[in-house]
Amino acid sequence: MVETAVTLKEKAYIHLRKLILEGTLQPGEVLTERMLVERLNMSRTPIRAALERLDVEGLAKYTPNKGLVVTELSVNKAIDLYDYRMAMECFVVSKLAQRAWGEGDRSWFEGNLKRQLACAEADDHAGFTEADAEFHRKLAEIYGNSEILHAMEQLQDKLYQVALTVLRKERARIKVSYEDHWRIYEAIQAHRGAEAAMLMERHLEFGKRILVF
Length: 213
What we know:
Blueprint: H1 5-21, E1 30-31, H2 33-40, H3 44-57, E2 60-63, E3 67-70, H4 75-96, H5 103-121, H6 125-143, H7 146-169, H8 173-189, H9 193-211
Antiparallel strand pairs: 1-3, 2-3
Helix pairs in contact: 1-3, 2-3, 4-6, 4-7, 4-9, 5-6, 5-8, 6-7, 6-8, 8-9
Keywords: DNA-binding, Transcription, Transcription regulation
Organism: Paenibacillus lycopersici
GO molecular function, one term: DNA binding
């Protein structure tokens, strides 16, 4: 079966996004169509579309005399993004605590938390970071505001490397982060919205604080 242009564009985007988030493509690295055509073994059309999407989403940006480069996140910018996340996610969990949850959603979170624990015990920072991101994203998804969900997805992409850095810098943090998530989930299920928001703020504040020390 021949892949469509849309499929190839999506494939190129997913591949490049993964290379950026994992740090294979480093901040400040120039992204040229020619280099990526050879690296991904694709034509210029899907590569160009993928690069345009990375620019729109802030994972890369055009700079004078260089072209498109992988975005370098400054400490001040990361702190701003953490503040944005706190405002948004504290609101979301406080609202979710007012709702009745279905069995499917509860089952999903319990499975995700088990995966977080397994990654924490195995000292698997990359695996934990992915499960962590899914936990936060799922909260926004259940809340049901498409704008908040979209903003969350973009923030998580921008802060992925920061999250890995926090876990590697504070190795004991991986288990604490798992425990934070359990407490947030339990507070939501017990309909304690103010407590859930307070726990979420404390959880995100730690990551922000690590950046400046």
